[in-house]
Amino acid sequence: MSTLSFRNVWVEFGDQVVLERINLEIASGTFLSVVGPSGAGKSTLLHLILGQQRPTQGRVLLDGKPFPAEPGPDRGIVFQRYSVFPHLTVLGNVLLGYELAERGFTARLLGEPRRKAIEKSLALIEAVGLGQHRDKYPSALSGGMQQRLAIAQAIAKRPRVLLLDEPFGALDPGTRAQMHALIKPLWRDLKMTIVMVTHDIKEAFGLATRLIALDRTRHDPQAPERFGANITYDLDLTRDSTVPVLGFTKAEAEIRP
Amino acid sequence: MSTLSFRNVWVEFGDQVVLERINLEIASGTFLSVVGPSGAGKSTLLHLILGQQRPTQGRVLLDGKPFPAEPGPDRGIVFQRYSVFPHLTVLGNVLLGYELAERGFTARLLGEPRRKAIEKSLALIEAVGLGQHRDKYPSALSGGMQQRLAIAQAIAKRPRVLLLDEPFGALDPGTRAQMHALIKPLWRDLKMTIVMVTHDIKEAFGLATRLIALDRTRHDPQAPERFGANITYDLDLTRDSTVPVLGFTKAEAEIRP
Amino acid sequence: MNVVPGRGARIILAMLPFILIAIIYVIGSAERRAANPDDKLLPPVSEMVVTSKRLVAEPDRRSGDYVLWTDTAASLRRLALGLGISALAGLILGIAIGLLPVAGAGFGTLVAVLSMIPPMAVLPILFIVFGLGELSKVVLIIVGITPMLVRDISLEVAGMPREQLIKAQTLGASTWQVAIRVVLPQIMPRLIKCLRLMIGPAFLFLISAEAIAADAGLGYRIFLVRRYLSMDVILPYVAWITLLAYLLDLALSLIGRRAFPWAYEQEAR
Amino acid sequence: MNVVPGRGARIILAMLPFILIAIIYVIGSAERRAANPDDKLLPPVSEMVVTSKRLVAEPDRRSGDYVLWTDTAASLRRLALGLGISALAGLILGIAIGLLPVAGAGFGTLVAVLSMIPPMAVLPILFIVFGLGELSKVVLIIVGITPMLVRDISLEVAGMPREQLIKAQTLGASTWQVAIRVVLPQIMPRLIKCLRLMIGPAFLFLISAEAIAADAGLGYRIFLVRRYLSMDVILPYVAWITLLAYLLDLALSLIGRRAFPWAYEQEAR
Amino acid sequence: EKKTEFNIAWTIYVGWMPWPYAADSGIVKKWADKYGIKINVTQINDYVESINQYTAGKFDGVTVTNMDALTIPAAGGVDTTAVIMGDYSNGNDGIVLKKGQTLADIKGQKVNLVELSVSHYLLARGLSTVKLSEKDIKIVNTSDADIVAASKTKDTTAIVTWNPQLLEVKSEPGATLVYDSSKIPGEIEDLLVVNTQTLKDNPDFARALVGIWYDTIALMKDTGEKGKAAREAMAKLSGTDLAGFESQLKTTHMYYDPKDAASFVTGPDLVKTMDLVRGFSFEHNLLGEKVTSKDAVGIETPTKTLGSAKNVKLRFDPSYMKLAADGKL
Ligand SMILES: Nc1ncnc2c1ncn2[C@@H]1O[C@H](COP(=O)(O)OP(=O)(O)OP(=O)(O)O)[C@@H](O)[C@H]1O
Ligand SMILES: Nc1ncnc2c1ncn2[C@@H]1O[C@H](COP(=O)(O)OP(=O)(O)OP(=O)(O)O)[C@@H](O)[C@H]1O
Ligand SMILES: [Mg+2]
Ligand SMILES: [Mg+2]
Residue B202 maps to which CATH number? Predict the structure, then answer.
């Protein structure tokens, strides 16, 4: 239904080549994990899909057609530095998604629809474990709590494509497991496409149906900025057979520089 | 030489009790890992040691004497939201530590001392893998790169107490291993006291000489804010015997809510 | 930097410079009086008190008005109108210019240029267009402070974290919705801060407008009695204006704190 | 919001409102001339050009000066002095008040109150204290804009992320070092932004000062010919002032971009 | 005390333009050198500010009208002496109506003028001739610099002002000059006043001033090329051209001859005028808020002292003009 294609995409910041020759097809419904060393360009890849960043060369296509350059409600995002709206409470942050969708002019809900939206928001807030903090402003939340709020906000609108940039990085293993349990059924039921950047190899393998690793393959010691990263591994995790039983240690070892 | 003591410390934000009845002695030279669920008050504990936060009740003592309320050069910090100075380049950020120490009035170095300080800074920048990015401003760095810069900055001055709030959260396993290899000898050689908050149980056990877990023990369903977290586990990791060989799975399981 | 004075010390510290200024004034005034018993430039406090009492409590010989109150009412009405309209215009134009590249290109330069035109110098044209009545006084305030408000707010909007705008769009917000649900509320504390800074200039323009053509108002009275250097009227009036402005400033700051608590977390050190 | 006009379109959009205003002026001027051939209020452009040429290129018969240039030189010197001193004072006081709770308690209220005193109302006192020479003109600019600068900068300093100050202290910085190595450089872009906003008011105060006591300067000339309603002199002067101010604004903005590239990353969308 | 350096301030007005011309053309220096002193002639753009600065002690002398000399420095306790009676307004101040042909038509209109100035006095004098009082009109204080612009707006129908603004205002289509100062000759006088104490200690200062003045206005009166050049320079200084300046000069009664000036000061008309002026000033609270009678401030003229003899603050002294008349400078 909505296939994302990267056709020979390059991204450069000034002199520095960050991504080079990226060719990638992401089928609808894929849960794609992206791993790679710090600074490889994982976030940049997400920004390309979001429409926040334009490729220097090459094209990003949606179902074969040029990409809508503006971020839209079909794509949800959790940024690496989990940014929530500082002027809204926890409830307000989640509710905003519903309000923006339903009403054009004032972007506010009233009466029954509002009650319903609040109900849905509260359920979501409860699910990410912020139930007792619903009236706090983000500045009074801990790092992990802000991250969970950003997740709740991003999934509230059930976008067709969900982009997650190290979404569980600031969470303890217990909370992290809860989040996995929240995301996985959502992805399955709604047939979302999810692209998740993570540094937790276990997580990458555990959740995804496909895994790519970004890294530099060429290196010029004189001008280290001349070459960018591209895709070094591309594993299909649905066919159980390709992943060895003790599998991820191998992949992990190879991703290390 | 410098023992940190918490004597019946409480921290409250308005109505909410965050930490309650914290009693803790941290001996000089300890590498203390702090684990616990998101929102338990781990960062708050660090802020107490830093002097950024005052306890609502109880006292924090240094060698039995009341605590200097101001942050000073004896304590280094890597904040959870790794904050580096946006107006300085990578090199400038690390160099600043040397400059602030050596000269009073202008806080600038010239000539030979400057050359030396730059040399030291560059070595450190190289060690955290930012060698080729030395002239970039933080806004042009990826999340993991900013985090590494914050680490380099914090250890440049070799503080007696180093406070790390999820310092490796945004790093891939490879880079993370490099950072471990950087911190560990430093701690050993300089006899620093390190307090590190982390969510990676393997890391917590792997690096530390002592591990504490923060969590709520009491719970009032009507008023969930009434009770704060306190120390639920306190493991001495130096005596190898107390940690079972397959050990951390047990601890990990118990910390989960 | 870490030395935080207590509540009592804080009040004393705040009072100190005022007391100093008062002492300097009293000495200066006494000296001038010693040289010339009719000196009008620095009248002693006692004289100012007498004059103030008359202005506040006695009807004027000629018009029968309680001068201070009619003046204050006239001026405050103009000020409120001017500030209100400016705030509205500043908000709308500022957000448009800061948020929409097209508006920024179209109006950005215009506003930058307009903000540089000294309004006093083109007064004749303002008179012709807006007449000489109440309107032109309000217009002078608006013309004087709106460009600054617009520029400050548009710079602030343009400096908002891009992530937030993108985030809002991924939540389905149209440009209009981004403006009213994300940008507007976050810019309001800035508007209030900015309005607080603009109270001074607003009074300045008001006074200038009243100096030029009026028959009541605080500025009218000041410039009227300036003709015979009645500092015993001018100084209480200036003090009164300053007090009014300071109260307005306090009120705005309180409103800001009440309405936008999230914006003041940082300040609470 | 995502529609970004290209370079050409941007220039055309920026020109559009100016062209519109020019057209309205020409029509208005022609209409008034048709009604009254001696109208002085909206002189036709041709007349302004003739007058401007005279002001620019013909030496004054009495003094042999080129009027426009002597006026400009006199005014710009005063303006530069006034802005420079204000910037310095604003920086020092602003950082002190924003950073040090003790200074904040001691001077914060004073500055807030001072910023509310309309300088025009106490002009006689200013003139008497500072004389009628160059000094008092510069002083009016300083008195007029410094309090606003101080307040804006101190609010900005107080709003800086606390983490940064703490971080600097853990790196061994004294309060003084925090001020000059962390706060000062980060506040500089804000100072420049603020100075850009203050160019308009600075010119306003300059013109007001020159209107009262001067024998050269742009404001002096405007008020000199105002009695005769010689808009053919006033309008070119106003345009010239606006151009000067706009160029100053551009220059400041360029300096800011050059000197503090890190502060403008965000803007580059 | 005895001084060698003196400051006088002037503002732009047709009757005072000799001062800057004298400064530019070296006449000031000539006379100052003669008496071994130095005189700085400073232009102040704003008339009221110049008087205020004189009152505050920043200047030793200032150009001023008789009414303002009484209400500002004298009422402010600064003992002031008029040493030069330069001219009187003989049509330089006027009332212009845009609606109506005679002064009586002013009834019920809004009148734009500089409140409490000589314009106000002229209006009061005019109203009394048509049996009206200030209650019958509404006064809108309008600054002198903006009154021309104000007169161009629709809601302005009546204006009282002086030259050069008056010339602009009355040339407006449909405007009628219904009353002017030629109806009250000698009542609006343009003076040069100096601080009495300074004068007492330094009579040479006044001698030099008088010398400068009559040298300069002799040039101004000159009908030849030299006179024209002088008037042209003065016109330029006041921001207009020769024609504009001369038309203002026409409605100004200059006392070119020091004898005439001195005899006007010694005559009885001055007493009558000053009595009217102090009456007006008292009624409008211009002598101070606590003053209970118009006698509070004493005015000394050669013929008679008006008001409190103990508190004489304004003096008219013809002796220096007489010296000039007698050629004894
Ligand atoms: N400024 C504040 N005002 C009010 N409450 C606060 C404030 N700062 C922290 N809190 C509350 O204190 C609690 C503990 O916060 P803290 O940041 O110490 O958690 P943490 O253990 O570091 O969590 P995480 O692992 O998510 O970073 C949270 O419930 C948070 O809501
Ligand atoms: N605005 C920018 N200007 C210049 N260079 C940039 C900019 N943003 C990113 N970069 C560079 O692009 C490279 C990739 O950045 P990116 O944020 O995509 O890395 P990442 O893979 O997400 O790393 P991490 O795991 O640390 O978050 C980095 O070397 C960074 O320096
Ligand atoms: Mg990243
Ligand atoms: Mg934390």
Answer: 3.40.50.300
